Amino acid sequence: MNWRWLCAVTRRSATPTKYLIRDRDSRFTSALDSVFKAEGIQVLCSLVQVPRANAICERMIGTIRRALLDRILILHEEHARRALTRWLQHYSHSRPHRSLGQLTPDQTEHEPPRPINLAEHRLRRHAILGGITHEYWTATAV
Fold first, then answer.
1. pTM (2 d.p.)
2. DSSP string covering 84-99, please?
């Protein structure tokens, strides 16, 4: 890959590139780093002896892509920021996680919820991001 071409493309973009995050592979030499540093791009290397870090990050990026970005047309940077902020709020507080026994992160801070008889309650649904996903809760008796 022509790294100087990549730098020229980032230089012409509306938003300047500030950082390049890379792993510690021997393919990436100090000469390559100096190309990016000359363009004002700070090179950040992944941590040493942390092979799972990239896998965890890639899994989260894949989750965001499948659950949000594949389902919505992003119009501009501000729209992307609002959508990601709202989706991450839903993901971190209201979405059940398999690793937590299908509890939400907020529920793990307290004791697990007690089972309820759904015949005695009405379910309410709130659309998140125009219906990409929903949050549910019980309302008063029928």
1. 0.56
2. HHHHHHHHHHTS-BGG
Closest among 138, 6, 132, 135 to 74, alpha carbons compared: 132
The Cα-based distances of 39 to 16, 21, 32, 127 in angstroms read 10, 15, 12, 44
Report pLDDT digits (tens) over 69-124.
999 898 988 898 899 999 888 888 888 888 888 888 777 777 777 787 888 888 88
Residue 79: partners with Cβ closer than 8 Å, 6 or more residues away: none
Judged by DSSP in three states, 42 sits in strand
Nearest to 101 by CA among 93, 112, 90, 87: 112
Q: What is the dihedral of CA 41, 84, 77, 125, to 10 degrees?
A: 180
Per DSSP, what are the bridge partners of residue 133?
A: 128
